[in-house]
Write a structure and sequence with these properties.
The complex is a heterodimer of chains A (410) and B (152). Chain A is mainly α. Helix content of chain A is 79%, strand content 0%. Chain A is built from 16 helices and no strands. In chain A, helix 2 crosses helix 11. The longest helix of chain A has 47 residues. Chain A starts with a helix and ends in a 6-residue tail after the last helix. With 152 residues, chain B is mainly alpha-helical. Chain B has one domain. Chain B has five helices and no strands. The longest helix of chain B has 30 residues. The chains are: A mainly alpha (410), B mainly alpha (152). At the A-B interface, helix 4 and helix 12 of A face helix 2 and helix 3 of B.
């Protein structure tokens, strides 16, 4: 019974923790502008993150070592450094965006400008990273993130033309008046948002923190293969709400407040309150995950003690990195840079960094020295190689598309 | 690589750097097409902001949002209309664009700024919005969309 409860809790937290600021903003932008015609990208991205998260989780469970550590050992310091540099830059950018997202969500409740909230949010994130237990942090914020299910209820309540939405989703037809390059740019951004590298590093490092063993592979797979796709459904619901409410009015989504507005239209103040709780939980949870991922990445590459399962004194350098990351992120946001703009950059650069992140995972997951009989099977390898080709294409296309479309403005 | 070839590569790189530097120092003059594309984008952005302000006002009237949320939405919309106006105002009008055409675009963008500001003020003040304000928001949004369509 206890085991079933653990699986259930894991799935719920995986759903609640799946959506972050990148998913919130990008899905709403795409829904408002392209209807459901880009919905196909979400399942493609979700399957991709499932494939590589399962590999990374299996590596952690069997070898008891996180991915960065093994990448450096297996592929050498140069490839390891490329892996580190790409992932770290994008993860830190996402960390900045998440802290900004929490501040924006608090602005919606208080009308106090988000820049004024940044120091408070940064302090709170720093305290949680320093003091909170790993499992408590993951479970509480993951469960609160489930509040975003309200987007699904709102979509239902809005009473859309379901057959029309389904037709848009399945025909993937570009709306008239939009350029193919813009369509492709947003497809890459959605893909980047769904396959954010930090999710895999956090997942595998979390596995080590929670002392997974080979016996936990089943639970880990259930979390990934059930939780992530259901989290992907939330992304589709966000896009659907934006498509139904904003599409006919020609409204483009530029702020976090707009992302939640369709819920207010459908469910009123109660729905809006729930969605704001969801915003805070999702962005705060992701801020903690990305902040920890910054520390994990550096500590695992340079080989110093890391983790929440040891005392701060025993992992001093790791904790210093966490504090430095929080201070730097807060400093960047205090310049009054728009967190939504940072988010837009983070999802595109996430797409750029994908091959640097996922190629080494595929290599390590095929090494019997680390995984013994748990090495990748045919299905994992076919999917892994297929996705490497896909992330390669997305990575090469991301920057040119960003320039040509002026970040989707064309 | 032989020393002479290396020297040649250096000279070419230096010349290219100089060309790029000089090109960056010149003032960019948009073509008529570029100006109209920018104006159309600004008009669309303004139309979106005006429609957002109208929706915020309508939802607040129906008591489906709370005041701070609606005010934040309207304040963001106001900022967007300002940014959209700046996008055109800071662009030099090229030869192929008439004074009247440019003035009409600026006039519309100014009206958008004005009407969104009024919506924000109404939300801050509280109470039901006058029908005239909702109608005006609707009219301006339509005018902006039509103008963007003509230019785009």
């Amino acid at each position: 019974m206890k085991r079933y409860l653990a699986v259930f809790l894991g799935i719920l937290t995986a759903i609640g923790g799946f959506v972050d600021i990148g998913d919130l903003v990008t899905n709403a932008q795409v829904g408002a502008r392209f209807g459901m015609s880009l919905a196909w990208v979400v399942p493609v991205g979700v399957l991709g993150i499932c494939v590589f998260a399962e590999m990374a989780g299996r590596v952690a469970a069997v070898s008891h070592r996180p991915v960065f550590d093994l990448v450096r050992e297996r592929l050498g310091p140069r490839v390891g450094f490329l892996n580190l540099a790409g992932s770290l830059a994008v993860t830190f950018l996402t960390f900045v965006a998440e802290i900004g997202g929490v501040a924006l969500a608090l602005q919606l409740v208080t009308s106090v400008h988000h820049v004024a909230w940044v120091p408070c949010v940064a302090l709170l994130v720093g305290l949680v990273l320093w003091r909170a237990k790993f499992s408590a942090m993951e479970n509480i914020l993951g469960l609160l993130g489930l509040a975003l299910v309200v987007f699904g209820i709102a979509l239902w309540q809005l009473g859309p033309d379901w057959s029309g939405l389904a037709r848009e989703a399945f025909t993937a037809a570009k709306p008239a008046g939009e350029q193919w390059t813009t369509y492709a740019y947003f497809a890459v951004a959605l893909f980047g948002a769904a396959m954010t590298p930090y999710e895999v590093f956090f997942f595998s490092s979390g596995g080590v923190e929670e002392r997974w063993t080979a016996k936990d592979i089943g639970v880990m797979r259930a979390n990934v293969l059930i939780g992530f796709p259901l989290g992907g459904m939330l992304s589709l619901a966000i896009a659907g709400c934006a498509a139904v409410v904003f599409g006919p009015l020609g409204i483009s989504v530029e702020t976090l407040g707009q992302v939640g507005l369709p819920v207010a239209v459908a469910l009123g103040k109660v729905g809006l309150a729930v969605v704001v709780v969801g915003f805070v939980a999702a962005t705060f949870g992701a801020a903690c995950e990305t902040g920890l991922s910054v520390g994990y990445a550096l500590a695992q590459y340079f080989g110093f003690q890391w983790g929440k399962y040891v005392r701060a004194r025993e992992a001093a350098a790791f904790h210093v990195v966490l504090v430095a990351a929080v201070l730097l992120a807060a400093g960047i946001l205090m310049t009054a840079v728009d967190p939504i703009l940072v988010t837009e950059f983070s999802v595109v650069f996430s797409a750029v960094a994908l091959p640097l992140t996922y190629f080494p995972i595929l290599v390590v997951a095929n090494d019997p020295q680390y995984l013994g009989r748990h090495v990748n099977g045919h299905v994992a390898n076919v999917l892994g190689v297929g996705y490497l080709v896909l992330v390669g294409v997305a990575s090469l296309a991301a920057i040119p598309l960003m320039i040509v479309t002026r970040m989707g403005q064309a | 690589m032989p020393a002479a070839a290396l020297r040649g590569v250096r000279v070419v790189l230096a010349a290219l750097s100089l060309v790029v530097l000089l090109a960056g120092c010149t003032v960019a003059t948009p073509s008529a097409g570029d100006w109209r594309a920018t104006a159309a984008r600004s008009l669309e952005d303004s139309a979106s902001a005006v429609s957002t302000a109208r929706l915020a006002l309508r939802e607040q009237e129906a008591e489906r949002t709370w005041s701070t949320y609606a005010v934040t939405l309207a304040a963001d919309a106001e900022k967007q209309t300002g940014t959209a106006t700046d996008g055109v105002a800071t662009l030099q009008r090229p030869e192929g664009v008439g004074v009247a055409e440019a003035a009409a675009v600026m006039d519309l963008l100014g009206r958008a700024e004005d009407v969104v500001r009024r919506a924000r003020q109404r939300l801050v003040a509280g109470g039901p919005p006058p029908d005239a304000l909702l109608e005006r928001l609707d009219t301006v949004a339509q005018q902006l969309t039509r103008a963007a369509g003509r230019l785009g």
